[in-house]
Amino acid sequence: MNKKVTILLSRTGENHKKRILFGLKRIRQTLVQNGYELYQETLPENFAEYRNIEGEKIYVGIAEQDSFIAWLEENELLIYHSTKPGYEGMYLETIPARLTLVVGGDETGALYGLLELIDRIDEEGEIPREIAYSDAPVMKL
């Protein structure tokens, strides 16, 4: 079985932040260890064309800062099944065309989301087919 996955990067560098790049490096290693053929592409100028990229896809972005995430929300492709991620929070969701989204409330939340996805890939041996999961730190004094 030949498993293929494409890591999508923003055209404008919105997801090229230090913690996100670290998380992407880790998830690439995990995907290869789990038998995936790995590709990387820049998002198409017309966001709707992400659907034309074959196979499974992963995109990571920050809520309120990322134009692709905003487009997905506006077009009701990304529908939060809980609250939108806030400070250090994250949300994982599978949307149409086999795209797994990692949405952070900030850069740290995006990294936490990638680490959660890595754990799930390691447990299942593949990218989860359907996921809608959120988490955020609970601050207690």
Major beta sheet, specifics? 6 strands, mixed
Helix and strand sequence: EHEEHEEHE
Tell me the strand percentage band.
Answer: 25-35%
Number of domains: 1
CATH topology: Chitobiase, domain 2
What keywords describe this structure?
141 residues, alpha/beta, Chitobiase, domain 2, 6-stranded mixed beta sheet, 3 helices, 30% helix
Notes on the structure:
There is one protein chain. By secondary structure, this protein is an alpha/beta fold. The chain contains three helices and six strands; from the N terminus they run E-H-E-E-H-E-E-H-E. The chain has helices spanning 18-33, 67-74, 107-124, and strands at residues 3-9, 36-42, 56-62, 90-95, 99-104, 132-135.
Briefly say what this structure is.
It is globular, with a radius of gyration of 14 Å. The longest helix is centred in the C-terminal third of the chain and has 18 residues, at 107-124. The protein has helices spanning 18-33, 67-74, 107-124, and strands spanning 3-9, 36-42, 56-62, 90-95, 99-104, 132-135.
